Amino acid sequence: MRIRAFLFLFIFLINCISFAQKKAEPVDLVYPYLDSSNSRWFFFNSASRPFGMVNLSPDTDINGAWGSGYRYESDSIKGFSHIHAWQLSGLSVLPLQDFDLSKSKDFASPFSHSKETVKPGYHQVFLDRYQINAELTSTLRTGFHRYHFEEKGKQQVLIRLGGMLGPSLITDGAISQKSSTLFDGHILNGSTSRRPYETPVFFAIRFNRPVEGMEGWNGSALTSKLEDISGSDSGVILSFDQSSDELQMQVGISYVSADQALLNLETELNHWDFEQVMEDSFKEWNEYLSRIQISGSTEKAHRRFYTDLWHALQGRRTISDVNGKYADMTSGNHLIKQIPLDDSGNPKFRHFNSDSFWGAQWTINTLWHLVYPEITEEFVNSMLQYYQDGGLIPRGPSGGNYTYVMTGASSTPFIVSAYQKGIRGFNVQLAYEGLLKNHRPGGIMEKAGYEHKTNLGGGFQYYLKNGFVPWPIPEGRFGAHQDGPSLTMEYAYQDWTLAQLAKALGDQSAYSEMMERSTYYKNTFDSESGWMRPRNVNGEWKNPFDPYEYDAGFNEANGSQATWFVPHDLDGLADLMGGKEKAVDRLNQSFEVAEKQGFTSGTSHSQETHPEYRRIPINYGNQPSIQTAFIFQKLGRADLSHFWSRAIVQKVYSELNPNSGYNGDEDQGLMGSLAVLMKIGLFQMNGGTEANPSYQIGSPIFDEIKIQLNPGYYPGGSFVIKALNNGDDKVFVKTATFNQKTLDEFDLQHDQIIQGGELVLEMTNQH
């Protein structure tokens, strides 16, 4: 027994040593299931590349944009679709066996997580109903499927050409056969309240074995003729010979044409080596994720960190083809255009589909611009392409359409921050021209959320005339989010950011104009109540007024949360509140109350209206108040920023399970980016939009963070943060040195960071 015990202990110790010596790669640590019980259409990702046109994954729920896509608690798979994007969906397929279309159109198959593997760039799942092992991977613009049929029977593949699919009703489609192994066609995303124009998606499908038979339907009628298959209730089932128990399928996608979909397929996937594509995907993800290396803390913290970083590179999708062709839908017409080419004949940048940049000033502005500046540059160029095509720099385009998602001119801080950080591989004068247009009558700022045909919902005329947006807007409802105080504060901040660009470019007139407007937030502050407060068109304060009443003049927030939205002039806000000390005390009290509810309004965005959650004074589940922990630092109390930011990370952004993760509205990487920044201890209150932007130093949860700087943009090699004597109870930064020089303030400038070096923080448990 002693010998056995000794051998067991010896083997155990050897295994422990081996495990410790084997350092997992960042891509291996990602947990794709995070928060997937609360998923929405574009949230969950598996077989996708960074910013991929193709986002191939199983769909368990398909009726609407919310609560759809892959949801962990759902028990059956309805299809594998290739596009999970902001207001867009596309080509759903599913392998079948011995399916009789004359008896049913219920194709869904039960599945079990015990027979499933999900990694960045790969999804494997066993379809219990058909006894098929399905594997999915992708390139940027193509999906790659491998199906293994465990039992003998007729091998089939379903291609859906109509029906509800996430945010879109697929209103029509068509498919044609080009050879025994090649098909192409299109589907049509019907318009939505957010995306006003129908948007086609084209495809090319290639199999590694010939198709032997086909049967489809058009409404209730069955047909074997492909040309008869169309409409919102349509599809086809292709069948194959029995020469092998494995079938492979490749699907190229394009928003331009079927020929372009085939070009994408032939260019990116000219072989049948599934393993190679899967490995290439892992390597690409690992390259992106490895730009930030961490050490210290727990394995769980590492896994959650790289999952957050993975989310920061998700959601916003490529919509241009491999040769730079793209569809311009800004006019409602499907116009084919070309991205400019470089001297080698390659597109200079990609065109993108994106949810709003509302809240990006505190999230991807800092993360992307520092760690992925080449991505920032592509996005700015894409925005300017929209401006040249449709006359406005967008705040959230969908498949070439303007959507006018959310409010204001949220792209302004993103572009200004890029310029201030030296990312200038775009036409700066064109960008400035477009931003000025957006901030004046006729620009995007005056449009409320999803206001497609009018320009009254944003109350912009009142902002210019009276210095505030009234609530309610007297002309009526023209869109969403017509909330006067929130609009006033948002416009004022965005005007301030544009003023910084005007100053940098020497436009004194516009600088003075925008700086004057940046003070208008004061006109919605009620000194008697001490809160931002709605006013009607006559200037009368809302009465009665409850600062904890949700959605009563404030966009996706209550007055307590929204009052702090003055990131460009916190000293001015503090003066309105009676001084910095009083402002700090009030904010600290708000955090003490919010802590009791976990700093969020519940496990999902939709819970913000719940009576129990809507009154929370600070909400880290949605964008309007996610900057508040770092307000303390700007008001002279960095210790409170360190304390509360650590508490928020622990409560809101530390879990690693399907039922929680972001506790609200993740919105295509915004909350993932925020979590990353809080965990490495860097933040930018005004979105990094001033000259040589400053970074506020927070309380990192890791002992060491190494950021690899892109040498094409920044010369410093790497920027390292070391937290000495770190621990769960040692959240305060006692001293900070950068390159062995003591920092008087817990701040670093952008030009210091990009030159590389080492920031050393001595942590303590003392205030």
Notes on the structure:
This protein is globular. The protein is of the alpha+beta class and 767 residues long. It has a nine-stranded antiparallel β-sheet. The protein has an eight-stranded antiparallel β-sheet with strand order 1-2-4-5-11-18-16-17, with no helix packed on it. The protein is built from 19 helices and 34 strands. The protein has a domain at 29-289: Distorted Sandwich (Beta-galactosidase, Chain A, domain 5). 28% of the residues lie in helices and 23% in strands.
CATH class of the domain at 29-289: Mainly Beta
Helicity level: 25-40%
In CATH terms, what is the architecture of the domain at 29-289? Distorted Sandwich
CATH topology label of the domain at 29-289: Beta-galactosidase, Chain A, domain 5
Global morphology: globular
- The helix tally amounts to 19
Integer-rounded radius of gyration: 27 Å
Class derived from helix and strand content: alpha+beta
Mean pLDDT across every amino acid position: 94
**Low confidence ranges:** 1-21
Distance between the termini: 54 Å
> Order of strands across the biggest sheet?
7-8-9-10-19-15-14-13-12
Give the amount of beta strand, in percent. Answer: 15-25%
Biggest sheet layout:
9 strands, antiparallel
Number of strands: 34
Short description:
By secondary structure, the protein is an alpha+beta fold. It is globular and about 80 Å long.
Main features:
disordered N terminus; 767 residues; eight-stranded antiparallel β-sheet; 19 helices; nine-stranded antiparallel β-sheet; Beta-galactosidase, Chain A, domain 5; single chain; alpha+beta
